[in-house]
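Re: [ENG-882] Designed sequences occasionally contain unexpected residues at chain ends

Forwarding the minimal case from QA. Structure tokens:
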């Protein structure tokens, strides 16, 4: 069951996560790739923490956040969630290749689509986890 303080944290995480995701896309399109990557890490991490809280779990350090995302993605049978941190970890290599050759930029945007999809899927999961509790009140 999600307590009121947890609900407040989830709401705060969602707001920050979605804002970071939006800013990351803008930064990437503007060519500020390093800033974009940092914002994507933050967005995804907050989405995983929100999903965990909505399920009554808590994850704090980077390693447990990654492990939770991988397990959750496996449980959901959602490759984007399961592999999101791995893709994000490989994003810097893809970004470096894109800097060297403009022809490889589409790979960066494919990764961005997958990572964005994982963040959106996680927030959909949070909504689904919280919906029965809201109607029961």
């Amino acid at each position: 069951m999600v307590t009121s303080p947890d609900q407040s944290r989830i709401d705060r995480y969602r707001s920050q996560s979605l804002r970071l995701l939006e800013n990351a896309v803008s930064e990437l399109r503007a060519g500020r790739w390093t800033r974009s990557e940092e914002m994507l890490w933050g967005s995804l991490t907050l989405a995983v923490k929100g999903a965990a809280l909505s399920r009554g779990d808590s994850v704090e350090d980077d390693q447990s956040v990654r492990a939770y995302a991988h397990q959750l993605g496996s449980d959901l049978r959602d490759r984007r969630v399961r592999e999101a941190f791995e893709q994000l970890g490989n994003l810097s290599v893809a970004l470096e290749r894109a800097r060297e050759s403009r022809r490889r930029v589409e790979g960066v945007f494919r990764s961005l689509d997958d990572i964005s999809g994982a963040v959106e899927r996680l927030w959909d999961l949070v909504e689904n986890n919280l919906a029965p509790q809201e109607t029961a009140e």
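QA comment: On inspection the terminal residues look reasonable. Residues 105-136 form the longest helix (32 residues). Proposing we downgrade this to a documentation issue.
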